[in-house]
Write a structure and sequence with these properties.
Layout (H helix, E strand, L loop, with lengths): L14 E5 L6 H8 L3 E5 L6 E4 L4 E7 H7 L1 H14 L3 E6 L5 H13 L5 E6 L2 H15 L1 H21 L1 H13 L1
Parallel strand pairs: 1-2, 4-5, 5-6
Antiparallel strand pairs: 1-3, 3-4
Helix pairs in contact: 1-5
Length: 176
């Protein structure tokens, strides 16, 4: 399904707003090759990828950049980002997530515990694009509505066919 309400099942195309710093980034190229409408903005946080129709925002970071540029400055950027975006994700990239990378992730999690930030470790561009598109698609209105409907139908089906549910109903009839 497309976000515009079309019925095409295999293709999902949306508009993506990216910081101008990502204009020549591999992620931008991949999204454009997949026919997504990529727009660039200087007014969004550096490293941001925003799916406005889905209501999700991602900030991309490499663990080595966090180490080299200073963790405190990076954490301030994250704080600014989550203050603006209600449904925010930090996509933390590393070729290998070793002890140093996990330690960085742990410190970030501890700092933003209880906030609306979710941290996702990734290894490469393909993985990054796939996860961003999956999350954006699942949170887009038509798809989210479809998921809610299917969950409600599944719940109703389970309740109707559950032996435990039937036993509870029989027990209730005998108690009355």
């Amino acid at each position: 399904m497309t976000e515009s309400g079309g019925q095409e099942q295999s293709r999902w195309i949306t508009t993506v707003i990216m910081s101008t710093g990502l204009q020549n980034h591999e992620i931008s190229t991949v999204l454009q090759r997949q026919q997504h409408r990529v727009r660039y903005s200087e007014s969004v946080e550096i490293g941001s990828v925003i799916f406005s129709l889905s209501g999700v925002a991602f900030i991309l970071a490499d663990t080595q950049d966090v180490v080299m540029r200073g963790e405190e400055q990076f954490l301030e950027r994250i704080q600014k980002f989550i203050n603006i975006h209600r449904n925010s994700f930090l996509v933390l990239s590393a070729a290998l997530h070793g002890p140093q990378e996990w330690n960085i992730m742990f410190r970030i999690q501890r700092r933003f515990l209880g906030s609306n930030l979710r941290i996702i470790p990734v290894h490469n561009t393909a993985e990054t694009v796939k996860l961003m598109l999956t999350i954006a698609k699942m949170t887009s209105k038509p798809c989210a509505d479809d998921i809610r409907y299917k969950m409600a139908m599944t719940k109703a089906h389970i309740m109707e066919n559950s032996p435990v549910w039937k036993t509870l109903q029989e027990y209730q009839l005998h108690c009355n």
